[in-house]
Amino acid sequence: MTSTESQGPTPSPASSRKSSIAGAVGNFIEWFDYSIYGFMAVTISAVFFDKSNPTAALLATFGVFALPVITRPLGGIVFARFGDRIGRKRTLAIVLILMSLSSASIGMIPSYDSIGVLAPVLLVIARIVQGFSAGGEYAGGAALIAESAPASRRGYLVSWMPSSTGMGLLAGSVFSFALAQALPPEQLADWGWRIGFLLALPLGLIGLYIRLRLEETVAFQQLVEDDNVASSPLRETIREHGRNVLRVTGIALGQTVCYYVVLVYTPTFLRTELDYTPSDSLITTSIAIAAYVLTIPLAGNISDRIGRKPLMFIGSIGMLVIIFPTFFLIPTSGLALIAVLQVAVGGIALGLYTGPLVCTWVELFPTRVRYSGVSLGFNLAVIASVSSPFILTWLIDVTGSDLMPAVYVFIAVAISLATLFTLPETAPAKGAVDLITPTDAATSTGDVSPGARA
Fold first, then answer.
1. Where in the numbering of this chain does the Major facilitator superfamily (MFS) profile domain appear (predicted)?
2. In the structure, what pLDDT confidence band is assigned to residue 47 with cuts at 50, 70 and 90?
């Protein structure tokens, strides 16, 4: 394969927009419900666990929050096989149904005071299914958008996938803030926290309608017509593209850990360690998330012109430089400065890194194993990041140091920065082979994709 290889039919602007919305909508729903759980962690701990030991209850809540560590990689493997065998569209529809039902079920579980230990057991089951379905969402949505985007706009259009993550998180943050403002603590604990989870049902129906109206991507349809669909996508991915799977894990680690710590865990940190009110802790994070959402598509757009790696280098260095001052100053700062610090590291630096990140993942793999390659690499990184709230709550309790979140983020981002030096530039604008082609799979060999060899 050469850099002049034909790209095949160019997707229409309308098709690209529809695919971008369809890919992002499920991700939005997933992260809206995930964020509700994270932002309502203190309340949920009192609802589902024994309140006699608040720290133990909070640890148990974050332990349940981290359950996708077990089920998400498994779901990623299962759904990636479907996605590379039967197509992106049908697989993503199944994923959305499971995710919506499991999320809504959390809002229906009675409290610990009502049914005792059965309450946390049901919560665990719901989180297991939720994590399993989430394992297939991100990689499939990214592949769907990328394969429906023109090469010159791919970085920008795919960037709406991680931006929708921020949108879901922002919506969850604003929703949680509004509930905390509108309801007294007793009503919030009694029934108010359930509303966000129950909204998963109508949101899921809307998302399912959008996804079912899509056409399968041209790239995957061509594989089917050529009888070139991978018979064992997982085995082929590991055997021929294992190095790029590890690259995806490496560059994803810093992003996912910083995301969870700065934009998901920090509201709990402000409440439990620094005694801020729920509304105060949520408003600073909401401002940072808004900056993150706006920065991502800007960075994705720029990456289409100057390449993916420069933006990721700038973002990772920014996170390394800012993270320690952020958590050093937060305990002695007012809300205004806390918001500025969160915006700097979690909004701008993280956003610059994230903008071209997901597009880089999909460009490292050929069409026939793209879903599997991205899913494996990303879900390995999620193992470390989803566990962050649980690990940090425990570390702070044991060490008494408020700098533990900074240490955790610094190590993860340093690993990502080191991985970046091994990464090829994948943007077509910088001379890389364009991998989103109907025929790319037929000539793919070795553990480095053709784009990586360019």
1. 19-427
2. confident
Based on DSSP, count helices (H) and strands (E) in the chain, helices before strands. 25, 0
Residues in contact with 7: Cβ distance below 8 Å, sequence separation at least 6, in sequence order: 151, 434, 436, 437
CB proximity list for 303: less than 8 A, separation 6 or greater: 155, 156, 159, 310, 311, 355, 356, 359, 427
Compute the distance between CA of residue 454 and CA of residue 441 in angstroms, rounded to an integer: 16
- Contact (CB, 8 A) for 264 and 389: yes
* Residue 381 exposed, middle or buried by CB count within 10 Å (0-12, 13-18, 19+): buried
What are the residue ranges spanned by the domains of the chain? 13-453
Q: How far apart are CA 100 and CA 121, in angstroms?
A: 19
Classify 135 as helix, strand or coil.
Answer: coil
Burial of 186 by CB count in 10 Å (0-12 exposed, 13-18 middle, 19+ buried)? Answer: exposed
Mean pLDDT calculated for residue range 27-32: 83
Q: Name, in order, each residue with C-beta under 8 angstroms of 294's C-beta and a sequence gap of 6 or more.
A: 351
Predicted local distance difference test score (pLDDT) of residue 443? 39
DSSP notation for 304-332: HHH-SHHHHHHHHHHHHHHHHHHHHHGGG
Distance CA 48, CA 138 (A): 29
The confidence score (pLDDT) of residue 446 equals 38
Measured CA to CA, the distance from residue 253 to residue 424 in angstroms comes to: 18
271 or 133, higher pLDDT: 133
DSSP for 277-294 reads -HHHHHHHHHHHHHHHHH
For 90, counting Cβ atoms within 10 Å of its Cβ (0-12 exposed, 13-18 middle, 19+ buried), the class is: middle
The token duo for 156 is 């920008």
**Polymer length of the chain:** 454
pLDDT, position 64: 73
Phi and psi, residue 93, nearest 5°? -65, -45
Give the count of alpha carbons within 13 A of 238, CB side only: 7
- Listed residue (135, 105, 149) closest to 16, CA to CA: 149
Token reading at 37: 């759980």
pTM above 0.90, yes or no: no
Query: Which DSSP state fits 365?
Result: S
Q: What is the CATH number of domain 13-453?
A: 1.20.1250.20
Phi-psi region of 50 (alpha: psi -120 to 50; beta: other; left: phi over 0): beta
CA distances from 356 to 182, 231, 296, 339, 351 (A): 38, 30, 8, 25, 9
Q: What is the pLDDT of residues 55-98, one digit of tens each?
A: 666 667 667 766 666 788 888 889 999 999 999 989 999 999 99
Q: Cα dist. 19→215, 262, 394, 399, 440 in Å?
A: 9, 30, 41, 47, 21
User: Is residue 193 within 8 Å of 48, Cβ to Cβ?
Assistant: no
